[in-house]
Amino acid sequence: PALRWHAQDGLTFDDVPLAAIAAEHGTPSWIYSAATLRNRLTLLQTTFATIGLTPAIRFAVKANDHLAILNLLRQGGNGVGAGADVTSAGEFARAAAAGIAPAAMVYSGVGKREDEIAAALAAGIGQFNVESAEELAMISAIATAANRIAPVALRVNPDIAAGGHDKISTGRATDKFGIPLHQAAALYRHAARLPGIRAIGFSTHIGSQIFSPTPFEAAYHRILDLIDSLMAEGATITAFDLGGGFGIPYDDGIAFPLGAYAAMVKRLIGDRALDLTIEPGRWLVAPAGILLARVTLTKATEAADFTILDAGMNDLIRPALYDANHGIVPVGAIDAASPPRPTEIVGPVCESSDRFGRYDLPALKPGALVAILDAGAYGAVMSSTYNARPRAAQILIDRGQPHLIRMRQPIDQLWHDEIIPHA
Ligand code: LLP
């Protein structure tokens, strides 16, 4: 594991003392382990490879869009790197800037704009995952005008409930995502005849932070039935994008059964000749990152003991938004005489939702450092400057060396692009 306790240095991350990083770069800071990232990509690839599957990996850039992270994933765990699942012009540009070929990208999202579609098409995007009949018509018109052919997979909404939280479930009929299952066959036949479109297959994504292969199996089963019946009519279908959504243990210790998932996919696909794609985000990067914070103050009231950090919901919004419970561990030596006791860990932002949760921890004095775990996905990307709090620094530990990969935002950069009229 990347995090280890060291008698003299306290908590280390890839053998680098976190106290040393805090001393050099300050807090709050995001810290990533390149080794963990490479290992997870390799593990993902070998889990499929050992049973004879080689799905294309299209990392969901929304989970962590830092160029250094994208670059590491592109380089790969064992030679073949990951491509990208992008969802905006900005994500497309970031992935391209990190050296990911447009052909190794899929473009997802319910609201692709005309200019975004045109640019991705001109660059040679590998696949559009199309979410509606309206979008299909839009892409056909843009491609025809540009004299190009857009490779298109239809994203099916299989009407399956899955996902760790209501706000991150995407595969129910009531969600805005995808094409309803019962409309998908007709729309595929239509797509196959449309100018500017090359219909290549189907995609799905049923939600995020899912632990059981069962909802995936139910969704894939429905889509494979659809594929079979279309192919029986003579349709050409080569692509099946299985989506992402694989869960990671936060503080509950449940891990995603990757081997069982891969075996299920293999069993379902059988001898069909389909090019498979997966779009994992969280599973690859969450465990590779932590948020390092310092205790600013402790405060005791009749209701609770509060431990106030210098990191808040503007940095990591997941607890406020999804009631997520990230593990929190002390970085420095703990007072053996002080038994763990419940404390409310909160941030400095002026909202009651700026709260990481209730934790049993030894007394943490002002100045003590803590590591907030599994913060590599949907962490820095979702941060804001609310309460005019600058964006935290980002550090990547690679081959034993910490590298500053994003400087702490200087205070005056908070308004450098603002304009006072008539000033
Ligand atoms: N593919 C598509 C089309 C997606 O919309 C997503 C995530 C993924 C792949 C990757 O899902 P993952 O493997 O990371 O579960 N901000 C939330 C998560 C939102 C996920 C949105 N879509 C959180 O912090 O939990």
From TrEMBL:
Entry keyword Amino-acid biosynthesis: yes
Q: What are the recorded GO MF terms, alphabetically?
A: diaminopimelate decarboxylase activity; pyridoxal phosphate binding
Q: Which Pfam families match?
A: Orn_Arg_deC_N (PF02784)
Q: Which residues carry this modification: N6-(pyridoxal phosphate)lysine?
A: K62
Q: What class of enzyme is it?
A: lyase
Q: Which residues form the active site?
A: C350
Provide the residue positions that the database annotates as binding pyridoxal 5'-phosphate. Answer: G245, E279, P280, G281, R282, Y378
Reactions it catalyzes: meso-2,6-diaminopimelate + H(+) = L-lysine + CO2
Tell me the Gene Ontology biological-process terms attached to this UniProt entry: lysine biosynthetic process via diaminopimelate
| Annotated positions binding substrate | R282, R318, Y322, E351, Y378
Transmembrane stretches in the record are none
Q: Which UniProt keywords apply?
A: Amino-acid biosynthesis, Decarboxylase, Lyase, Lysine biosynthesis, Pyridoxal phosphate
Q: Which domain of life is it from?
A: Bacteria
Cofactor(s) this protein requires: pyridoxal 5'-phosphate
Ranges for the Orn/DAP/Arg decarboxylase 2 N-terminal domain? 39-286
Q: Which EC number applies?
A: 4.1.1.20
Pathway the protein contributes to: Amino-acid biosynthesis; L-lysine biosynthesis via DAP pathway; L-lysine from DL-2,6-diaminopimelate: step 1/1
Subunit and partners: Homodimer.
Family, per entry? Belongs to the Orn/Lys/Arg decarboxylase class-II family. LysA subfamily.
Explain the purpose of this protein. Answer: Specifically catalyzes the decarboxylation of meso-diaminopimelate (meso-DAP) to L-lysine.
The protein here is known as Diaminopimelate decarboxylase
Tell me what organism the protein belongs to: Acidiphilium acidophilum
